[in-house]
Amino acid sequence: MSVKIRLQRHGKKGKPFYWVVAADARSKRDGKYLEKIGTYNPNTNPATIDLNLESAVQWLHNGAQPTDTAKAILSYKGALLKHHLDGGVRKGALTQEQADEKLAKWLDEKAGKVDAKKSGLSTTKADVKAKAIEAEKKVNADRIAAAKQAEADAIAAATPAVEEEATEEAVVADAETANEDSSASEQAEQTPAVEENNEETQA
Fold first, then answer.
1. pTM for the complete prediction?
2. Closest CA to 49 of 87, 94, 79, 89
């Protein structure tokens, strides 16, 4: 029986979640499997991979062939390296202690790279968030400035109208004053004539 290490799709539409399984090559993609050896979640950044290293290596020892994606996952988690080192131990090229030491060193370096990537992504997220906040503050400040400018323009537009009304009122008041003065002058001119008429009548 030919065995393949491959991905079995789970999860909802648009949010795939995969099991890493060892299954008969003739079975359907999401059909029966021999053993579940891990999970793969591509929805996170970086992708979340949980792998049973010993089971994966044992299946590789038994001749299971990984698909391209499964091979990349096994390489990422060190299963292929352990399989290679175990082959060296069997051939006598190195001892088990040396193989374990090399694997542990490689895993530490890999964990350091992953942590560095996570911290870099966190820093990038923080920078993006800070820039977004600054942009929002700038937009709000511009809106406030625009509102104040509009209010000032409205006040400036209303001021000439008030001054024009005051000017019209002053002109009307001057005209009324002039009319009153002319009426007073006419009355003053008519008064002597009336007095003269009265004197003539008395005479």
1. 0.53
2. 79
Residue of 76, 81, 79, 65 lying closest to 42 (CA atoms): 76
CA pair distance 160, 142, nearest whole angstrom:
28
Query: What distance in Å separates the CA atoms of residue 81 and residue 99, rounded to the nearest whole number?
Result: 10
Owner of token pair 């895993």? 107
- CA 163 – CA 53 distance, rounded (Å): 89
- pLDDT at site 200: 53
Q: Assess if CATH 3.30.1320.10 describes domain 3-78.
A: yes
Q: What does the pLDDT look like over 54-94, one tens digit per residue?
A: 999 999 988 889 999 999 999 888 888 888 888 888 888 88
Residue with tokens 């002058």: 185
Could you give the CA distance from residue 123 to residue 2 in angstroms, rounded to a whole number?
A: 46
Residue 74: partners with Cβ closer than 8 Å, 6 or more residues away: 5, 51, 56, 60, 66, 80
Average pLDDT over residues 186-195: 54
Strands (E), the chain: 3-12, 15-24, 35-41, 48-51, 65-66
